[in-house]
Specification:
The chain is α/β, with parallel strands linked by helices. The protein has 13 helices and eleven strands. The radius of gyration is 20 Å and the shape is globular.
Length: about 300
């Protein structure tokens, strides 16, 4: 282990963060979980917590205390406010491990690399030792499809043949825990993916099998997808995402062995992820009742 100095985990109750906290605890690290409110949510017993909010640099400053290293998850779709948070980290800490995205390219300016590239650029502008984990699509994002699947409705998707190397959140967490506690990772950029690239139709098929439903999808146009996405993201991000997904039809996301190289174990498959989340994917009793009612009523 690199040292026993304190590690602060942001997003500590989220899909990746709570696994990072658990992995660090298992490795005997001195870990503190930053949470939005007192109580700690999914923080394991025995792990210290501190209240902090990434939208409030002052609260982050308070959370840093005697922290040496930060695991940074930026949960927002824009980099607004990130430079102030990163400056606060740089004033207190020596290292940061940041979860970025595979879409970031080193041959493009930060403005063209979206929120992830902009935050990488802000971190590079400090004296922090940094490690970037450029992560492919998170498998957990496909849980958004479970409602229509459970109701035997088609999943509405643009570019159904777009192929993504989706990654299990636990693989990200296990890599992060090693990077946070071992020497030799400063200045490294790691491309983390799942073990295979699956089309969106294949992904729907896996989820439908777990749910006990026939796979059904409807291909929607770019304009239709754009209109739906604008309800939760700004135009620049929506257009960038749709252009990226379109490119994956002919050029699937890359598949790397970085997870195995760092952890000594192959990355988990999308099928494995789906089995791990079977309780989230299978229809609840309530949805079954609603389905029976809606299918038998006039």
């Amino acid at each position: 282990m690199a040292n026993l100095s304190k590690i602060l985990v942001t997003g500590a109750t989220g899909s990746i963060g709570h696994h990072v906290v658990a992995e660090l605890q298992a490795r005997g690290a001195n870990v503190t979980a930053m949470t939005h409110s007192a109580g700690g949510g999914r923080v394991p017993a025995g792990v210290g917590t501190v209240v902090g909010d990434l939208t409030s640099p002052d609260s982050v400053e308070h959370a840093l205390g005697d922290v040496d290293t930060v695991f940074l998850l930026w949960p927002f779709l824009a980099a607004d406010g990130a430079p102030d948070v990163i400056d606060a980290i740089a004033r207190h800490c020596r290292r940061v491990v940041y979860v970025s995205a595979t879409s970031v390219r080193d041959d493009r300016p930060p403005a063209e690399n979206g929120v992830w590239g902009q935050i990488e650029d802000a971190i590079r502008g400090t004296d922090l030792d940094w490690t970037f984990l450029r992560v492919s699509g998170l498998a957990t994002n496909t849980l958004a499809w479970t409602a229509p699947i459970g109701a035997s409705q088609p999943v509405r998707i643009p570019y159904p043949r777009a192929a993504r190397s989706l990654i299990h959140e636990r693989d990200v967490a296990e890599v992060a825990a090693r990077v946070l506690t071992e020497d030799g990772h400063a200045g490294a950029t790691y491309l983390l993916t799942g073990p295979a690239a699956l089309t969106q139709t294949d992904q729907v098929g896996v989820l439908s099998a777990i749910a006990g439903r026939p796979p059904r999808f409807v291909e929607i146009t770019r304009d239709e997808a754009r209109e739906e996405m604008l309800t939760w993201a700004d135009a620049a991000m929506v257009d960038s995402a749709l252009t990226y997904w379109a490119s994956l039809v002919d050029t699937p996301e890359p598949v790397t062995r970085t997870v195995e190289e760092i952890t000594g174990r192959p990355a988990r498959s999308f099928e494995r992820w789906a089995l791990d989340h079977a309780d989230d994917i299978r229809p609840t009793q309530t949805s079954e009742i609603v389905e029976r009612y809606t299918t038998t009523s006039p």
